[in-house]
Design a protein that fits this description.
By secondary structure, this protein is of the alpha+beta class.
Length: 153
């Protein structure tokens, strides 16, 4: 397997049942500012996070938090359970994003590892701003997002 440059931490995603309260606390504690908000989501996001209704990015220097609320839905983690939902790792190019996804599949198919779940890595999706991402679970079922953001290294 080729050597890949290690990805950088892009953001930490936090699910909360009281988004406004959570935003206020993160702003006060980390001295964060709101960067942007979303209330429309891709089919991939909606399938992974049923009931997501709003996502807000807060930044403090290079540290980014994606705070989001979810409506009550059946199945999955209850909406009132606070959790680190995933960790996002940023890569330097779209081709590197493809390479990380292929590496995940190579290890998954190798049969040398036991995965808690059998969910494959997602397709790469690209949003209206050109940000490309895919999601994959580690052997423990912990979720990683790998992302390429045009104009950021």
């Amino acid at each position: 397997m080729p050597t890949l440059k290690p990805p950088a931490l892009d953001h930490l995603a936090v699910q909360t049942s009281d988004l406004d309260n959570c935003i206020a606390w993160y702003r006060a504690f980390f001295d964060c500012e709101v960067s942007w908000e979303l209330d429309k989501f891709s089919e991939l996001t909606l399938s992974r996070l049923p009931g997501i209704d709003r996502l807000v990015e807060l930044t403090a220097g290079d540290l980014k938090f994606h705070l989001f609320g979810r409506a009550a839905v059946d199945g999955g983690v209850p909406r009132d359970t606070p959790q680190f939902q995933h960790v996002c790792l940023r890569v330097a190019s779209r081709s590197t994003l493809d390479e990380w996804r292929e590496r995940w599949y190579a290890l998954y198919r190798a049969g040398r590892y036991t995965f808690v779940g059998q969910e494959p890595a997602t397709e790469i999706v690209v949003d209206d701003a050109g940000v490309a991402s895919f999601y994959a679970f580690d052997v423990n079922g912990l979720e990683f997002e790998f992302t390429y953001i045009p104009g950021e290294a």
